[in-house]
Amino acid sequence: MDVRGQVRVVYAAVATAALLLAVDVALSAAALHNLSGLDLRMVSDQQLRQVRIDMINNLVVTAVGALVVGVLVLVVRTPSNKVRVALWTLGPLIALALLCGLVGGPEWAVAPTGDEPQQLRDEYEQAVPGWYVTLHGIAGLLAAALLIFAAVFVTRTGMREYYLDNVDGTRYRSWVDRA
Known about the structure:
Elements: H1 3-36, H2 45-75, H3 81-103, H4 118-127, H5 130-153, H6 157-164, H7 175-178
Helix pairs in contact: 1-2, 1-5, 2-3, 3-5
């Protein structure tokens, strides 16, 4: 694959990750709105507080991630080593934050043990709807995988040469060659 094709692949991966993060922001906002409108009687206040905190954490991580990745989408085609370094560092960091949010999500605050009455289990399902858990998990996992893929893909030799070209068209020279 030629270098232009490789740049398109990275651009597509980063743009898709940004889109998935934007979808995840909408899902987290909808789940928070759903939680605000509920009148739950059997779920404890501490559990509801933990669910709300976890959903807000998911919303903040995905919103910040969507903004950062959105900026990366704008600059990923620029032949600059700074862009490559940004992909190396920010992509995996955002992916790690997303994966941490998936592992410690709000569904664990209201996870049934099996000893609860059916009415309490129904309220648990209302507090953290199944659609949120499923769609948030898919979007977060795919976005994390795409960001890690992009970070690894820019380490290829052709990509290295592309990103070491300066924007003004001159070739990158190491400090050893400059002497």
